[in-house]
Structure formats: structure tokens, C-alpha cells
Amino acid sequence: MTYDILLALVAFAFVSSITPGPNNLMLMASGANFGFRRTVPHMLGIGLGFMLMVLLVGAGLVQVFEAYPVSHVILKIASVAYLLFLAWRIANAAPAKGPGHAGRPMTFLQAAAFQWVNPKAWAMALTATTAYAPGQTLQAIALVAIVFGCVNLPSVSTWTVLGQQMARVLTNRRRLTVFNWSMAVLLVISLYPVLWPG
């Protein structure tokens, strides 16, 4: 990989990781409801889960979708259904009031698994492996995954901090409810490119 391609990859990783999408909206909601520390497993799950996704997509998983187009339709339906479920959970989230409180942030494994039904993650992984992994060699694909890992964690952390800072304004139940419903609606809107592509 040339220096120019590496710089372009870093820029792509940054822009795609920092811009709004399902992961970042959920992290902002989690930061507001549960704080930064309790959201760390969620952030790590996104970063490491996406790195694994890039490796597997680059290693040939995309060929499964080309060979069996129905699998792409099934993934699309599962993605929409799961994102709608997550939007409902965010809309009805309540702040953590103590160790016994029912509300919980997303776990590491849940966040890692979520990447496989996240339409933005799929678009990022496919673009990154096809545009920035010359020759589709294992080394090039691994480098793409590592670059995303290095860029992604600070980017998603920004959204968690933003949510945590917003918690200072969300000091009563009504404000928090409005915030959570707004995040849920934005998450549903993020499905637009999946439901009505180009």
C-alpha cells in the first residue's frame, strides 16, 4: 500500500467513523443514559467487531452474497428489524439509578454482533476493502482493519462523551424522554439508505 493510499484510507476511516450512523447515535444515547465508563464495552465491541468484519469481508465473505443473492435480502430484513428493535429500546431507556436498576448499556458482544446487521458498517467494510486493499491480499486487508481500529475508537468515544455531557442538560425525566425519542427517530431515519437505496 502506497503512502497516498494509506492517507486516503485514514481520511475515509475518520470521516465514516465520526459521522452520524446507528453506532454513533446509540453511543450518544448510552453516554447520556449510562455515562462514559459503563459505555466502554459498547465502544470496544464496535471497534473490534468492525475490525473482524473488515477481515472477513475482505477474505471473501462478500462472494457469498454474490453467489446467493437471497442471503443479502435476508440480511437486509434482519438489519431493519433489529434496528427498529434497538430504536424502541432507546426510546424507552431510563437512566441508571444504581446497581439494581433494570437499564443496561449494550455489552461488548452485543455491540460486536451488531456490526453484522448495521447497514453503515457493511457499506464502510465493503468500500474500505475494495478501494483501499490493493490486490485484496491478506496483508492489505489486515492493514485496512488495523487503520479502522486505530481511527474508530477515538471517533466513537467522541459520541459517548457528547452524550455524557448532554446528561447535564437532561436533568429531568421529561428532557431525557424527549432526547431518547429523538435518538430513536434518528436511528430509524438512518435506515433510509437501506430501504430506498440510490
Summarize this structure as a short list of keywords or feature phrases:
single chain; about 200 residues; mainly alpha; globular
- What helical percentage do the residues reach? over 70%
Name the helix and strand elements from N-terminus to C-terminus, one letter apiece: HHHHHHHHH
Q: How far do the termini sit from each other? A: 31 Å
Assembly state (oligomeric): single chain
Biggest sheet features: none
Structural class: mainly alpha
- Rough outline: globular
* Amount of beta strand: under 5%
CA-atom Rg in angstroms = 17 Å
Give the overall average pLDDT. Answer: 83
Low-confidence sequence ranges: none
Number of helices: 9
Compute the number of strand runs.
0
SSE order and pairing:
Elements: H1 3-18, H2 22-34, H3 36-67, H4 69-91, H5 108-114, H6 119-131, H7 138-166, H8 173-189, H9 192-195
Helix pairs in contact: 1-7, 2-3, 2-7, 2-8, 3-4, 3-5, 3-6, 3-7, 4-8
How would you describe this structure to a colleague?
With 198 residues, the chain is mostly helical. The chain is built from 9 helices and no strands.
Short description:
With 198 residues, the chain is mainly alpha-helical. It has 9 helices and no strands.
